Description:
binds S-adenosylmethionine; alpha+beta; two-stranded parallel sheet; Rossmann fold; single chain; 32% helix
Amino acid sequence: MKSVWRDIWKISSANNSKKIFGKHPTQKPEEVVQRAIIASSNINDLVFDPFCGSGTTGVVCKRLNRKFVGIDDNIEYLNIAKKRLTATNNDVKHTSF
Ligand SMILES: C[S@@+](CC[C@H](N)C(=O)[O-])C[C@H]1O[C@@H](n2cnc3c(N)ncnc32)[C@H](O)[C@@H]1O
């Protein structure tokens, strides 16, 4: 299996197909956040994102069975985050590469 743990990650930015619940100008690709969460936390850990925007960190946490607390000072972005989280299922099978 090809390793993902390289110094440089080549991952496309989140395109419009990933923004079906609303547009955030700097929404991060889920794959980038997923790698960071897997590398730095365990199942049931609490992950805190104080600038959560459209909730990418929360979406990945839910999928990977991490608890999540997010803050943003923009209510429109928080509403996008809520919709994305509601539409995300837990799926433990993605916890490792
Ligand atoms: C780079 S964006 C985060 C994007 C997020 N990772 C995503 O995938 O959607 C940074 C966020 O920080 C929020 N922000 C900026 N200043 C803030 C503050 N003082 N308190 C809380 N949130 C803030 C902005 O509204 C913006 O959504």
